[in-house]
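Summary for the funding panel

The consortium committed to producing paired sequence-structure records for every protein in the target list. Below we show the first two records in order, beginning with the earlier of the two.
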Amino acid sequence: MWLGLRKKLSVQVPANRCVIRTSIRECRQFEQRTDFSLPASYLTYIQEIGGGTARHYFQIYCPNPLPKEISLEHRIREIRGSKLLAEIYGEPELIERMIPFGDTITGDIFVWDPAQRHGRKRLEYAILVLPRDSRRTVVLTDSFSDFVKNYVFGRKFEEVVCGGVDPESTLTFDYKPFTTRKMKPKN
């Protein structure tokens, strides 16, 4: 599913390091701890690409325990149920049930709404954004794969949330993983 995107990515990993991706075991443990089933396309994304920062702007979190500040579970505890967000956006029920999985470096928050499930064979949820400069949530799409392809590595975010695409901007495929480890020396 993500092979085409992986080929386009300019992955920024320090020399002598490799990317640590979340295992399916870690995902299942997360699901048990949180009583939330992760979307199918997200599961394959974090196993094939991993959590990190895309285009120097979008951050996608995963159930990776290290470092905990950038784990999906930490973001959920930090954001879900926030009285301040409920007051700002006027949707306390959504804020209580939402699963925040990503954000932008400027403060827009991306969430799944468990009340809006999609897909019979492959589980997906509606994806909403809590824009930093608006008091209304915006429904972006109904699948994580569409979100990544058209919002993170496409132009839809600028069109829908920012009010238009800057004709001077270029579309990049830079990606910096959150977690790396030292590579084992080759013999």
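The next record, for a separate protein in the list, is shown here:
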Amino acid sequence: MGRFSRITLVVDGCFLVFMGVITVVGVFQGWSTGTGPMGQAMHGRPYVAGFAEAALFIGVIGLGLLGAGLFAASWMWHVFAVLAHATLMSIDIGFRVETAQLGIDTSTLTVLTVLHAVFILAHLFNLTRVRTAVPA
């Protein structure tokens, strides 16, 4: 894979790891203290475990993409990334109303939706550059 392919995987992986960690910290801060961007929605609520699991899973996906970019880039990782970002983007769009009802600012979801779309386009661009050997 080319240099841009590896850079895309590394940057995307770092983004997902960062977002996963920040979200877990925010969820637990809100759950335990009632402060922070998700404080009111998370304080003492039983559904915090689901939010934390989802955020940790996003971080794991990011670690996979980061590792692929650093050690084992192949076109399949770009397919995986497109599917992961399409799933995350659809969840962000689908749960916008519920997020607002929990009292969480939805402007963050708007930014994340745009970033997911940008990463999808970057990975699709990399897939158009894949050269496969044609048997003679």
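Regarding this second record: The chain has a mean pLDDT of 89. The CA atoms of residues 68 and 90 lie 24 Å apart.
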